[in-house]
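Table S2 (text version). Query chain:
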Amino acid sequence: MRKPMRRNYLVHKGIQIKYAVMVIALLLIYTIILMSAIFGPAFHILSSGQISLADRAETAEAVLLLNSSMWPWIGLVVFLFGGISIFVTHRLAGPVFAIKRMLTTLGDGDLTARIQLRKGAELQDLGDAVNDMADRYESLVSSLDERFRNVAIEVREMERQNAAVKKSVLLTEIEAVEQLLEKCTFKKKGKTETA
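Corresponding C-alpha cell output:
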C-alpha cells in the first residue's frame, strides 16, 4: 500500500519562515528600487517647475494611475513568492528534518533506523551517506556485541575451569593432610598412639 503524502509543508518552521521573510524582504527592496526607477524621473519633473501646470497635472495623474494599478500586483507578487519560498524551503527542510529525526532515533538505540526520502528529494546524497553510516554503525555495534558475548562465554568457562582447578587443588591438599595425619603420632597422657 502506498504511503500517504504529508501535507504539512512547514516541517521546520524556524528555517522555513526565516527564508520566507528573507525572500519577502528582498522582494520589497527590489520593489522600492524598481519604484524609484519608475517614479523618480516623474517626481523630478513634477518638482522642477520647468513644465506647465497642465503638464504637471497630466504627469501627476499618470503617476497616480500607475501607482494605484501597480501596488496590488506588487503585493500579489510578494505574497506569491513568499508562499513559493515555503515550498522551496520544504524541499530542503523536509530532508533535514528526516535526517535529524533518524539520527535522534539512532542515538536512542534503535540501530535499524534509516532515512526514507522521496525519490529525487534534495539532499538525497546526504541521506544516502547517513544511511551508509548507520549501516556501518549497526554492523560495528553488532560485531562488538558478538565479541562481548564470546568474551563473556570465555570468562564463564575460565571461571568454571578455575573453580575445578581450585577444587582439585583443595582435594589434593586435603588428601595430603590426611596422609600426614595418618603418619603422625599423637601423644596421649602417658601413651603414644599412631593415628
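Notes on Table S2: The chain is about 75% helix and 5% strand. Strands lie at 185-188, 191-194.
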